[in-house]
Write a structure and sequence with these properties.
Elements (H helix, E strand, L loop, with lengths): L2 H26 L1 E12 L2 E11 L2 H8 L4 E11 L10 E12 L4 E6 L6 E3 L2 H8 L1 E9 L9 E9 L9 H6 L10 E5 L2
Antiparallel strand pairs: 1-2, 2-7, 3-4, 3-8, 4-5, 5-6, 8-9
Length: 190
C-alpha cells in the first residue's frame, strides 16, 4: 500500500470508530417504561409503574448546574379496539420536576403543580425516585364497560418548553435533548 492509501484507510477507520462510539452514546440515553401494574382499590384502578431514565451527558450537566428538568408522563386509557379518532377514557399529563439545589447539595423531585418535594443526597437516587410511580389513581371502575377490553398507554418525555429560555434553542437543535420513551402499551385488566 502506498502512504496515501494508508492514511485514507486510517482516516476511514477512525471515522467509523467515532460514529460507532457516538451511536453507542445515543443508544444509552433515552427513557423506557419497564413495567406497569394496575390494580383495583376503593372503586378505582391504581397505577404502579417503573421508568428507567438514561439522561444524556448534556442534560445531566445542566441538571448538576441547577437547571430544573420537567418530565411529562402522558397517560391514556383506551378501548383496545378503539378507532384512532375515538376519545380516550383517560388522557392526562402528569408533570414532575427534578432539580439540584447547590446550597443544600441535594436533589429535589416533586410533582407539579405542588412545590413540596422529596430530597435526595445523590443524583442517582433522585432519578430512580422520579421513575417510580406508586399508587397513582387512574380511573374509576364505574367508567369501564365489563364487556370491553382496555389498554393503558404510557409515554414519558423531557419537556423542552420548560427549560430556561437560553437553553431552549440548543435543546431543539441537539438530539441529546430530545429524550422520550415513545408509547408503551399494556393490557388493562379490570
Amino acid at each position: 500500500m502506498t502512504p496515501g492509501k494508508v492514511s485514507r484507510v486510517t482516516l476511514i477507520l477512525a471515522l467509523s470508530l467515532l460514529l460507532a462510539l457516538t451511536a453507542e452514546a445515543f443508544a444509552r440515553s433515552g427513557f423506557s417504561v419497564k413495567q406497569a401494574q394496575v390494580r383495583p382499590e376503593a372503586g378505582q384502578l391504581v397505577l404502579n409503574a417503573g421508568v428507567d431514565f438514561a439522561f444524556s451527558n448534556p442534560v445531566l450537566e445542566a441538571l448538576d448546574h441547577g437547571v430544573p428538568l420537567t418530565l411529562v408522563f402522558h397517560i391514556q386509557v383506551r378501548r383496545t379496539e378503539a378507532w384512532m379518532w375515538e376519545d380516550s377514557l383517560v388522557d392526562e399529563q402528569w408533570r414532575y420536576t427534578i432539580r439540584y439545589r447547590p446550597l443544600s447539595e441535594r436533589y429535589e423531585v416533586h410533582r407539579l403543580p405542588s412545590s413540596d418535594g422529596r430530597d435526595f443526597v445523590t443524583r442517582d437516587a433522585a432519578i430512580r425516585a422520579l421513575g417510580d410511580l406508586t399508587d397513582q389513581a387512574l380511573i374509576g371502575l364505574d367508567r369501564l364497560d365489563p364487556d370491553e377490553d382496555y389498554e393503558l398507554q404510557i409515554k414519558v418525555f423531557l419537556d423542552i418548553e420548560e427549560l430556561p429560555l437560553p437553553l431552549r434553542p440548543m435543546a431543539y437543535l441537539k438530539p441529546s435533548w430530545k429524550l422520550s420513551s415513545g408509547w408503551t402499551t399494556w393490557p388493562l385488566n379490570h
